[in-house]
Design a protein that fits this description.
The structure holds two protein chains of two kinds. Chain A is about 35% helix and about 25% strand. Chain A is of the alpha+beta class. In chain A, strand 6 (about 130-135) and strand 7 form a beta hairpin. The N and C termini of chain A lie far apart (about 60 Å). In chain B, helix 7 crosses helix 8 (about 270-280), helix 10 (about 340-345) packs parallel to helix 11 and helix 18 (about 645-660) crosses helix 19. Classes of the chains: A alpha+beta, B alpha+beta.
Chain lengths: ~290, ~750
């Protein structure tokens, strides 16, 4: 009978060494995906490496306006960090709407990213906001845009022995606003049928100078919709621009029909969600 | 009936006896039971919707270290067809046996084919993977209308439709045809000024109890078997396990654990006979606990259905004709609630010309089980939706049209019963006067209203009332408490005896410690078992009066019972100090021994219940998401013995009905495999999905019960689907004729409008 080995190292180096020793080993952060998968028999593991004893993975810090969020910091904790939330409300909200209140006390941005679900809530928000992932491994550290971590449903670009240790958010640009919205049939404890993260920056005259739009649950991995960003840039983010952006989002969807939603529904609602997220982002940009 | 104003306990909100243990986590549920040497049982389930079992090889599983027993259908006696009442439905023991462990064919995704008992869960799981089942996959059918088609794959070669003359010669998936008729529908429609004709569809929905089925069985060398189980009926488990396992009833002793929800779904057996056979074979106690996935794949649900509905009315709102065809999914074995579905459809209204034809149809889905007012919500969704459309066409108020046609004492139903005193008119009046109905509909929202009916049942109950040495009382009954019945029974016993509620301790006993009780179902327990307990308390009073008479040396007729005391009936009886129950208990050893009362009845005269629900909602036109913003459940509850738990029934039924209306459905793929066997994708409402459900308790006492009780637990799930659909039309102008009204379907309907 196979025995599950549980380790809770106190440092990144120890964690990396453990992960390097077993190619099937998995990192345990909040466990809100991993434990569910293990219990349902989807994953049979020999080694679980709990990273919650590593300070770096459990702390949030800022340096010159840029933020470093430990990969295992829970959504609830991020939400209680007023300064972080003031800078990046869309990202914080996206992490802290996962599951229910109980789950939000455990689920983390790093875990959500590495679970590599197409419907991960935090990912479109982080992508739109320009977040990067700090990855530690046997050969040292590297930093990549978060969208480079998930490569297909359930699979990441991490090599054996590698783990995400932190999410980095850039210094908040002036007059930037970002937001994430998702469609779920319930009000909580559900998985996005469509998710949309939008970040946009205005000049002093209120014209959009930069934008990034990312969609979740409409393709195997997060979709960055350049045409949607282009539809906003150079405009006052008026109705016509929003309409064009929504159309670009719908056009960029490559969803599947499944128990959670149809191709038709996801395609249509992607535009609706992106438009609503853009309006919130716009409001935030104007007040920043 | 006692005067209401004189009640001391009935109608008050006391702490439930099971409450403290539940909120502190001390309450023991079936999965918490453990025994020395206990094994873990696991069930192997069909990966196919429909397949012939060519062979099952269990030798590798049996050889695995730690495996102590493996069973298949070969370990269960093959049973002949034998019908038995089961909650509000009827079942065939042969089907029960075949559903518990597939014989020859698997009938649905998740159908049990074998089971193992091992020293731990991991070994049991591994053993399952070592069982080699060879299947010949057969064509399957999921949809009810496709299953009725001439060329549909047949589930049962010998299924000849009952209720058709002449008897068909060819088998089909239609188990039964039923018909209810009054007047002449052609004549009725000829008189109608307005006719609405629509087909309404509902999805199969699960009862959604939070606690999965769990059982611990322990078979001893002498053939005696003890069972601890999560069930709505320990006597049902005893009888069904005896049948399915080939035992005498006296060989089984079944103890019901605290139960984490049932709603009708725990009135049948699944893993219970499996645990018994595994225990008999291994000689060890065996616990079988279902996972949520197993619950959804292989237990419950209630039927989905198609209801072709035609309703005719005159200009003044008088309903003149209803013609409907109802097609209900039974699951893999016959026995959908098609009968009650037909009977309840038009029951709240006096309609001269009615024709209802129902079909009970098998398909490759799990066998349906009872679910709160089984059958009624499906037909009520259709009828109350159509009635709403009639009212709109006539520009009539939804309450006014219902008042115009409402049944009252003396009204005759299409199924032949003449109503005694009922409270539907009072319910409609209360709805009209409710804060909710009187308040304006908020901007951007829509309001809908719908009504519902349920018979409620009585049936066999036993209770005992033991007078303890210190004058406190133990009340023993035999119905698992799924809705606060222990509190209600204790309140009625306290009222009857005239003692403090906190001196009455109610318990739910095992099958060997109290006489027979029919299952907890049909909203019968507070009514029927409550009545048995009242009888038992009155038996105690009778004995207490006899003891006082003995002590006072007077005739028992000269002793009355008032305010919890024996008193001389008058001055002729002599001058004696009153004796309390405690005084009499103290003297009991010297006056004849222990004082124990008994009540055994087959309760008649269950009072029918009527409800009216009002729903406000808003619809997100960009996503099709529906938000219920305000909801009120109004119901004739006879008399609310414990108003708090009656409120809870009205709220719970409404919550489940709103889930049924908006999101719940079984999603099958093309291979007939269930895709959403978990609460993530089988969406019962979560707390944040619902507003506070307001209640209005209307009390029209049932004169066939000492305290006026009517069953209350089922009516509240009947109106919500139509209430939501009717509110949807008010909000959007779109009529949703298919459940669930999930965001993709609503968005599509909005775009089509």
């Amino acid at each position: 009978m196979s025995q599950l080995r549980y380790e809770a190292p106190g440092s990144v180096d120890e964690a990396v060494a453990l992960l390097a020793s077993d190619s099937d080993a998995k990192v345990l952060a909040g466990g809100t995906d991993l434990i569910v998968q293990m219990r349902s028999g989807l994953r049979k593991l020999g080694l679980v490496v709990d990273v919650k004893k590593i300070d770096e993975l459990m702390s949030v810090s800022s340096d010159g306006g840029a933020w470093t969020i430990g990969a295992a910091v829970s959504g609830a904790e991020m939400n209680e960090n007023a300064a972080l939330k003031k800078d990046w409300p869309g990202v914080v909200e996206a992490v802290d709407l996962i599951g229910s209140t109980q789950v939000q006390g455990r689920a983390s941005a790093g875990g959500n990213l590495c679970n590599a679900s197409p419907a991960a809530d935090s990912v479109p928000a982080m992508v739109a906001a320009g977040a990067t992932a700090v990855i530690a491994g046997p050969n040292g550290r590297r930093e990549v845009p978060v969208e480079q971590v998930p490569v297909s449903p359930g699979k990441t670009s991490l090599a054996t022995g590698e783990m995400v240790v932190a999410i980095k958010m850039p210094a908040k640009p002036a007059r930037n606003g970002e937001a994430y919205l998702r469609m779920i049939p319930r009000t909580e404890m559900d998985i996005a049928i469509v998710g949309a993260g939008v970040s946009l920056t205005l000049d002093d005259g209120g014209t959009c100078t930069a934008a990034k739009v990312a969609l979740g649950a409409v393709a195997p991995t997060v979709v960055i919709v350049d045409d949607a960003a282009k539809a906003l840039i150079g405009t006052k983010v008026d109705d016509a621009a929003l309409e064009k952006m929504a159309a670009a989002c719908s056009a960029a969807c490559k969803p599947i029909d499944d128990k959670r939603g149809t191709i038709e529904y996801r395609t249509k609602v992607a535009g609706v969600m992106a438009r609503r997220a853009a309006l919130i982002a716009l409001e935030r940009a104007r007040s920043n | 009936m006692p005067n209401e104003s004189s009640f001391k306990w009935v109608g008050t909100r006391q702490i439930r006896p099971d409450g403290p243990d539940k909120v502190t986590g001390r309450a023991k549920y079936a999965a918490d039971y453990t025994m020395p040497g206990m094994l873990i049982g696991r069930i192997l389930r069909s990966p196919h919707a429909h397949a012939r079992i060519k062979s099952i090889d269990t030798s590798k599983a049996e050889a695995l270290a730690g495996v102590k027993a493996v069973v298949t259908s070969a370990d269960f006696p093959e049973l002949a067809s034998e019908m038995s009442p089961n909650s509000e439905m009827v079942i065939d023991f042969s089907d029960v046996s075949n559903n518990v462990m597939a014989r020859k064919k698997v009938m649905y995704d998740g159908h049990a084919v074998a089971a193992v008992a091992a020293t731990d869960a991991e070994i049991a799981e591994e053993a399952l993977s070592l069982i080699d089942v060879v299947y010949e996959v057969l064509p399957h059918v999921i949809d009810v209308e496709e299953a009725m088609a001439e060329d549909a794959p047949l589930l049962h070669d010998g299924m000849i439709t009952e209720g058709i003359t002449p008897t068909p010669t060819k088998p089909s998936n239609i188990a039964k045809r039923v018909e209810f008729r009054s007047g002449d529908v052609d004549k009725g429609f000829a008189e109608a000024d307005v006719i609405v004709e629509r087909t309404y569809k509902t999805a199969a929905v699960h009862q959604g109890y939070i606690e999965p089925h769990a059982v611990l069985a322990s078979a001893a060398e002498d053939g005696q078997v003890q069972v601890w189980v999560s069930t709505q009926g320990q006597f049902m488990v005893r009888a069904f396990c005896a049948k399915v396992c080939g035992l005498a009833i006296s060989q089984l002793r079944v103890t019901p654990a605290e139960i984490g929800g049932g709603f009708g779904g725990k009135t049948v057996v699944y893993g219970e006979p499996v645990a018994v056979q595994l225990s008999r074979k291994s000689g060890k106690p065996v616990r079988v606990v279902m996972s949520r996935e197993e619950v959804l794949r292989a237990s419950g649900p209630t039927s989905g259905g198609v209801v072709e509905t035609k309703v005719g009315a005159k200009k003044d709102g008088t309903l003149v004709a209803v013609d409907a065809v109802l097609k209900y999914q039974a699951g893999a074995y016959a026995g959908s609630p098609i009968g009650p579905g037909c009977m309840c459809m038009t029951a709240p209204y006096e309609i001269e010309n009615v024709q209802l034809i129902g079909y009970d149809v098998v398909s490759n889905r799990p066998k349906v089980a009872a679910y709160r007012a089984p059958g009624a919500p499906i037909s009520a969704y259709a009828f109350e939706s159509a009635l709403d459309e009639v009212a709109r066409e006539l520009n009539m108020d939804p309450i006014a049209i219902r008042q115009k046609n409402a049944v009252k004492e003396g009204s005759k139903t299409v199924y032949g019963v003449t109503f005694p005193r009922i409270g539907f008119e009072e319910v409609l009046e209360a709805a009209k006067n409710s804060d909710h109905f009187k308040s304006p509909v908020p901007e951007g929202e829509g309001r809908g209203l719908a009504c519902g009916f349920w018979f409620n049942i009585g049936g066999e109950s036993s209770a005992a009332c033991h007078l303890n040495e210190d004058g406190t009382v133990t009340v023993i009954s035999g119905n698992p408490d799924i809705g606060g019945s222990r509190a209600s029974i204790a309140l009625m016993v306290a009222e009857t005896l005239g003692i403090d509620y906190n001196k009455v301790r109610p318990i739910v006993a095992d099958t060997s410690s109290i006489g027979y009780n029919f299952v907890t179902g049909g909203s019968r327990v507070t009514f029927a078992t409550g009545m048995a307990a009242i009888n038992a308390a009155e038996d105690v009073i009778g004995q207490a009066r006899e003891r006082a008479a003995k002590i006072w040396e007077i005739d028992v007729d000269a002793v009355t019972w008032e305010d919890g005391e024996a008193r001389p009936a008058g001055s002729n009886a002599g001058d004696h100090d009153p004796m309390s129950l405690a005084d009499i208990a103290k003297m009991a050893p010297k006056t004849g021994g222990p004082i124990n009362g008994h009540g055994s009845i087959n309760a008649q005269g269950a009072g029918a219940g009527f409800g009216c629900h009002i729903c406000d909602l808003k619809v997100d036109e960009g996503t099709g998401h529906v938000t219920v913003t305000r909801y009120t459940s109004i119901q004739d509850v006879g008399r609310a013995i414990h108003p708090g738990y009656v409120d809870g029934q009205l709220q719970g039924g409404a919550a489940q009905g709103i889930g049924w209306a908006i999101n719940e459905e079984y999603v099958y793929n093309d291979d007939g495999l269930l895709q959403n066997a978990g609460f993530l994708d089988y969406r019962i409402p979560v707390a944040s999905d619902l507003p506070m459900i307001d209640t209005v308790l209307v009390e029209v006492p049932n004169d066939r019960h000492p305290y006026g009780v009517r069953g209350v637990g089922e009516v509240p799930i009947v109106p919500p689907m139509a209430a939501v659909a009717n509110a949807m039309e008010s909000a959007t102008g779109v009529r949703m004729t298919s459940l669930p009204m999930s965001p993709p379907k609503v968005l599509k309907a909005l775009e089509g409008s």
